[in-house]
Amino acid sequence: MGRSKFRLIFGVVLVAVAIGLIVYGITSMRRPPPVVPGQQATAAPSQDLVSIVVASRDIGRGEKIEAAKATILKVQGPAPVGSLSDPRSAVGAVALVAIPAGQIVLQNSILAPGDTTKPGLSVLIPDGMRAVALRVNDEVAVGNFLRADDLVDIQLVLSNSALGPAEEGGNPERRESRVVLQALKVLSVGEALTEETGDKAIRMQNITVAATPEQALVLAVAKQSGVFYLALRNPIDNKEEPVKPVRLEDLVGAARPQPVPSDSSAALPVPAVVAPRQIEVILGSNTGKQAVP
């Protein structure tokens, strides 16, 4: 009985010692290293807070920034490159891109305020370019996936009347598709509206693209000459390459009629050469042959 009691007390002591060692080890790991005499502890360098201008509300592309839409945010320095430190630098400027609430207002994302700064689409047009509006539906506008700054090609489908007189022996129901302009930049995409056409409802919207003065004239003719479509490009693909037009005959496999030679004499039959008739002539002792018509 006494021996069992001794074993119990000895076990309790061992457990207490083990717990004490564990607590000591954990405490030692959390304790900072001792400072060597003559050496001062170095504190982590502190960074001062800097002020940057952010949008307090959503700012639309081409919108003039009001004082209520720009505020100050304190962040640890250094300030981001191109950021503004004073809201007054942004108030009155025009946003060149959409700036969501909370996003930093950068110098290259706004047009500096001034007497000539006016909100709207005109400030988004590159120098030397023109803004041309195209009224499109979802099919023409790549399924309503177009966004500002996208690059598009203009494809034009010409009908019979626009292709001129039919070639002799050709298909009277003619169609031809061709790429008339390439890599045009989309400036804005208007709000989609629903129009009632008979018993159908069609979503229509205006797409505005940037074009040179010559390209603007091509677009004006294209809109009146056939049905046009927009083809969306990769944003980094701005190369212009020649594209061969496609006709209806190319799709159905019919041979195109060969052009008639312009020289009419080439179509005339070549007359046969007939040898002249000859008769024998006898003069005394001399004989000979003579051709007669």
TrEMBL record:
UniProt KW Transport keyword: no
InterPro entries named in the record: Pilus_assmbl_Flp-typ_CpaB, RcpC_dom, SAF
Domain of life: Bacteria
Transmembrane segments: 6-26
Domain spans labelled SAF: 50-111
Keywords, sorted A to Z: Membrane, Transmembrane, Transmembrane helix
The protein's name in its UniProt record: Flp pilus assembly protein CpaB
Lineage: Bacteria, Pseudomonadati, Pseudomonadota, Alphaproteobacteria, Rhodospirillales
Encoding gene (name): cpaB
